[in-house]
């Protein structure tokens, strides 16, 4: 009788031990599957080998693709005409994202360089929304169709070149890196930070970056951005500008709005995607487009940063020279001084600048900033309207 009880007890212990091992094994498997899922969500959306291969297949004269984001027309088309007028044929291409249905022809631009250069599948763009980065992706996708395009420069309608075409072309082609302003945002350690925890785990907080929208890319990185179908949907869902509402007397509504993250997609998307793709070592972490920022206060005493608009008076040769003489950029959130380099050689930091009025751009033209200018083609174009 005693032997039977001992035998039953041992049998029960064995069964419990087997069950315990089964539970542990299933838990380990579940953890591994969860880690694999997280890993699959944070790896580069496009295999690097495939992108590199697409670069190596091209043989010929490489081109710089100039990608313009415009509301409608290009008010500074005349200064870009002067730049392209002095370029070697086959060394550049032009793409413009404008409002849907807008066509660049003799009635909408003074420069034949822009005729028919609008992308056909443009979308309506709103500042502070994901539509802005989708417009960038549309431009890059279209430009990638031409294998000769090896550098991709994103520009606004208020941008101007600071050098002649030859200088810009050689500067870009001499570097194997993309120029992407990218840094850690110290505000994201506070309540009013732009990072939304709902982005996790697809977008880890330690990969979150901030920077200027105005980027210059090598072909590999342009392809990574257009192939992304993981990070962009998260941005579209969780990175949104906080609504600017009149909430006077509406305490509950004010509390709801204050809880929302004031996230500007175009200042974070490319930087964060390339960080997640482990490509930061392939970047010069700075923009090539100069912007002068002024801090002002709105009616409620809140401080805001706004880009300065250059007028005719402020676009003097002395001021432009000061911009051209800049050789480094300091990032206070990282205690980092970025010395401006191209192919390990110290160079001026900026090739372009914004925001310029027509008067300011005209002054650059007359001062010969972009090189000799033949006005006859534009005058002839204007006379035929």
Automatic annotation (TrEMBL):
GO terms for molecular function: glycosyltransferase activity. GO terms for cellular component: membrane. Keywords: Glycoprotein, Glycosyltransferase, Membrane, Transferase, Transmembrane, Transmembrane helix. InterPro entries: BC10-like (IPR044174), Glyco_trans_14 (IPR003406). It comes from the Eukaryota. It is a single-pass type II membrane protein. The chain crosses the membrane at residues 16-36. It is found in: Membrane. This is Core-2/I-branching beta-1,6-N-acetylglucosaminyltransferase family protein. It comes from Asparagus officinalis.
